[in-house]
Amino acid sequence: MGEVEQEQEQEKTMGIWEHVGELRNRLFKAAIGFAVTTAIGFAFSDYLVKLLALPIGGIQAMTSIEVTENVNIFMRVSLLAGFILALPWILWQIIGFILPGLLPHEKRWLMIALPTASLLFISGVAFGFFVMMPAALQFLTSFMGIKTQVRPNNYFDFITSLMFWIGVSFETPLLVYVLAKFRLVSARQLARQWRIAVVVIAVIAAVVTPTPDPFNMSLLMIPLLILYGISILLASIARRGEAQESTSATVKDAKIVKPSS
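Predicted structure:
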């Protein structure tokens, strides 16, 4: 009996180390992919910097006062571009690690989540650049009528952080869908707690939005509230699809099992 228990313990230990090895392999592949896409970002950084500087009037509207300032913005923009390009690959590595432990129907919806996550993040980045940035910059640069001398380091730190965190916040519907699939949340719970959600969204908007005025906060709050409504709908769809799959599986089992004569 002791030998059997010892063998079972060894199998468990081997299984854990196999998972650790697989995780390390996936993380290494994700890091390599991010390094490659960041190198691509380096190649196009000059164009990207000029593009991101358009809302402020171009790079000629800014003045560097530190020796390393231009290098810092080069690195920051390249890293953001590399992350956006590498996001599908990074998500694929995460999915590849957890995929073997999922059921067939769970694998299907998880594969759908991969392009959806990338699309939502890019949509958030685009919203931050085309909608939030012009309104925020107009308010900040004209506040109290004081002329603003824009520094590149401060400007690109501000714009890349804004775009990144808005992109992350746009992932909310997908996150809620996954949580609903794992039965951690439900559409009914989300609908009942809408008041708390409004407060949380207001706090997120206050933190992410670079200006304290209600106009710019509402620019971010409105799409986040819409996304919360979409999250409730997706949570309902997730549970409904789960119920249908369970019913169909029961029907199949009933057809297979025939009464004995």
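Summary: The chain has a mean pLDDT of 77.
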